[in-house]
Amino acid sequence: MADRDIVTPARPHALYAAHGYSPAVRAGGLLFVSGQVGAREDGSPEPELEAQVRLAFDNLRGILDAAGLTFDDVVDATLMSTVPDEAFPLAIRLLPDLWNGKAPPALTAIGVTWLSGFLFEIKVVATLRETNGG
Hints:
single chain; 3 helices; YjgF/YER057c/UK114; RidA family protein; RutC-like_sf; YjgH-like
């Protein structure tokens, strides 16, 4: 098995412990981030769609920060939503600010029927920097 370690944000929400999964795993020169939703610290969803999307991005930023990375290091992103006609245009509008004008990652958007009470989720893979042991 490849060497791997868990990356946890400074302020993890309750879903990780409640459901027994890692926020992210560093392995093989990559950071594999679990799907991030607009979960408040207690694990409950932010009720309004735009606030939920923004919080999902903030939660993702917290994991990238914990790994010593930024959105510039993201090479692949998958967006999922139970309300894709509403969520994807909103997310696509917000994404350029995250990439800071750099080349955007590969992107897949999927409409789904269930996200455990959430409306939007983003999952990414990022490359590790050599200074981070990647």
